[in-house]
Write a structure and sequence with these properties.
Rossmann fold; 7-stranded mixed sheet; transferase; methyltransferase activity; rRNA_ssu_MeTfrase_G; S-adenosyl-L-methionine
Amino acid sequence: MTHRADINAGLAAIGLALSEQQIDQLEGYLGLLAKWNQTYNLTAIREEERMVSYHLLDSLTLVPQLDGGTRLLDVGSGGGMPGIPAAIARPDLHVVLLDANHKKTTFLRQAVIELKLPNVEVITGRVEAYQPEQKFDRITSRAFAELADFVKLSRHLLADGGQFVAMKGVYPYEEIAQLPEGFGVAEVRPLLVPGLEGERHLVRVVAK
């Protein structure tokens, strides 16, 4: 199977309908990730075919959960996951990719240019020091930190009525128990990622 066939099959399983242009962008992102990964160490996964499920499709399971809001912050974006696939699938969203690593944000800026993503902004810096003019309706992370640290470091960036939408592996019982005072879990949703073994969960955290 080609990557396109794998992507199409995965999108159908997730329930996402994307245009041919969006699928072209997803394939383009995959190629850039594989190319830059050789020198920038963006991900431990080296094979493009494994990147389809572990990175593209895993990131895209976030998209059906992004109901409401127009501004999404991806904290510790790294190689652009889940922010870039989400931005491709939801061009109506303004997506900010935030990472403190200069090499990674250099890659992210190049990817945004090559993939023609006018809805994406890249910021180099630490999340606790980031002070944008406008706050975010949804704040996500995929491999940034445990829930408590994620919420503590980025809560100043959450708009009134906004949500943290964290992507996790196994059900994070202990992390949930450590959430800071004033925040609680609205939902923990199992995610099924085509081609990916192991548990995946999406955790919604809101201010009480």
